[in-house]
Structure formats: C-alpha cells, structure tokens
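ok so for the tutorial part 2 we go from a plain amino acid sequence to predicted structure tokens. step 1 is just haveing the sequence, like this:
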Amino acid sequence: MSGGDENPQTVNLKGPKGYTGGGLGAYQFSVNDDGDLILTYEGDQPPQYAINNDGDLILTTADGDTINLGRVKGGRGDPGPQGIQGKEGPQGIPGPKGEKGDPGAQGIQGKEGPQGIPGPRGEKGDPGIDVTGAQVGQIAKITAVDTDGKPTKWEPVDMPTGGELSWHLVADLTVAEAVTDVVITKDAEGNTILQYKPIAVGIWVYIPADDTQSSTNGGLWFWLNGQNSTPYRSIVAFNNWKTKEWRRGVFTFGTEKAAFTAFSGSSPDMMPLWPNEYGSMFDKITLHVHPTGDHIPAGSKIRVLVLGKKPT
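step 2 — the prediction. this is what the tokens look like for a chain of 312 residues:
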C-alpha cells in the first residue's frame, strides 16, 4: 500500500483482506476519518507490521522474513494554520529566589498624610514680654527686675545703630577761676570716654597770660589714664606765661592698653600700659599744674574730642 501526497485528505480505503497463517488470526487495514491507518486482527498476537523511516509498511513473517508492502506515509506537508491557543495551564512551581537587584529610582513623594493626634499640653511657660505702643524695628528695653534679677517690666526703644566712627566733642569748657587740676571723664550727656571706644583723643588748650603765676616759665601736665602715674604723663611748656598767652594741643591715639602721644613743643612719646598696672588708657583725662604757686588761670579754655563711635 502506498502513502498519499503531502497533507493527505481523509480517504476511506479498505486494507487487504487478512489471512490466517503463522498462528495469527485474521486481520485487515482501514483508514479512519483522521487519516490514520488502522490494523484490525484476531487472535492473541498482532501481526508484525511496522513503518520504516521511509514511510513503507513492512511485514515480518513468522520465519523472520520482511515484506515491503509499499509506501503508506507521505512526505511532510507544509505547516497548517496556527491553531487556537489552548487554555492557560496550571501555575508552575516557583523557581529559586534570584539575587537582590540594584535599588530602583526614587519614587515620587506621596501625598501628605492626615493630621496626627495632638500631643499632650505642655507646662505653662513664662508670661513673656508685655510691651505696648511699640513700633516696627524697635526692641524691648528692660526697665524693672525682681529680687532674682528676672525682668518684670519692659518698654520699647529704638534699635541701637552702633554709630559711625567719627570725631565727637566730649568737653568744651572755660575755667571760671584759677585751679591746679581739671579732670574730664564724661561728656555732657553722661557718657564716659571709654564708652566711645576711642582710638584717638585730641586735647586743645588756651592759656591766657597771667602775671600772678609764681614761675616765669610754666608747664601743663597731661594724663590720659586714671592713675596719674608720672611715667605716663605728657608735659607741655609755656615760656614767659606771665606776659604771653599760649595755645597748645595734645594728640593721642591707640587703645585702652597702649597709646602714642604727640604734643606741641615736644617730641612724640609712646606710652604702653601693662595689664593691671595703671588701669585703662582714656578712662580719665587730667590737666595739672605742678609747681606751688602756679595754676591754670581763669579764662583758660579746654576742648577734648575723641575719635570713636557715639554711645547709644
């Protein structure tokens, strides 16, 4: 029996009539609706038929001989159309866990969550600053405290500006009567010289002629620190001051601990102040006439200026 062409159609063929022999019962071939070759036989053992690789039907007899009965299987036809996808199979067994991958990109921030439950109420604090009538830019100034130093009263004041570095007039006076000393520590508003944080002090004096002086040639001592120590004085001479008026000046610049002084009629002088030795430079200005019988005459004029920042 020979096979059909590629992609054979179903054919209703009868196989050869079976025969009895070799102890086998009767048998026959047929082709079903699907194109399959069906062997039907009687007896306990089927006849020895097989299809070789070429598609030929081979009979093996009881004696072991083989008989080629012809081609029963055609060549491979073209693939048929894609069939309908079957149903999804059952879930397979999970495979082993893979290695941990790299972190992914930062996700978009989520929406803000709902308001949480308020926490317990805290302890009562201080009443705070009770100030009225304040304006924008002002600050609170403490005007009263209790026995423990705790502020109890405030008032609004303008914010200190710190001032600008410039010359400020601290003293401008005329001596009313003859004296041996003139001491200056504050300005007319009560600010001390040190509150200006001065970096320089200028002193100008006018001494009128005075024939009541005991010395023919006089001198005026200047101290720019509160100890009035002899090593830290500057002396300005006034020759023939009984008959001649004088105008002299003393200029000093430095810090609280050291100063350089230049004055009329004499060479400049450096005056350092060591810690805890003679106090602070510029904390007090003293003009002094030393010899007995000499004095700063009435009508003398003294002017003091400091280079610093106006206290606020």
